[in-house]
Amino acid sequence: MKDELAARLEAMRRQIGARWVVGFENFDGGHPFIEVAEGPVYRLTAYERGKRLFTKETTELDEILYWAMYEVTWNMAYGYAVEHPVEDEEQRFTAFRRQEELLGTLNPAWVERARAARPTH
């Protein structure tokens, strides 16, 4: 299961031209990583200075792919927003649009998921 997940993540990374993808090792510093347990059970977790920031758990491959690529695309989108400011618009809204473009490239259904979780103002 881990090998299949790693291959899918790498293919998605290449598809959108990301410099990194969520991996399977804990580097601390708030960087998310994936754990795969028997079942399979997938966990997305991040630690900062040894303290757990969050853990999300699922048995669905699509769900862990979405969570992982959400992290990657948000990083890419915010970098884009900083480099391409839009006059009279908060950077986060530029980033939201860019992230939706990137997620839509990977899976069109993911755009609505991301949109539904965002603030409207």
TrEMBL record:
Boundaries of every Immunity protein domain copy: 42-116
InterPro entries attached to this UniProt entry: Imm63
Pfam families, A to Z: Imm63
Entry superkingdom: Bacteria
Protein name: Immunity protein 63 of polymorphic toxin system
Record organism: Lentzea atacamensis
Species lineage: Bacteria, Bacillati, Actinomycetota, Actinomycetes, Pseudonocardiales
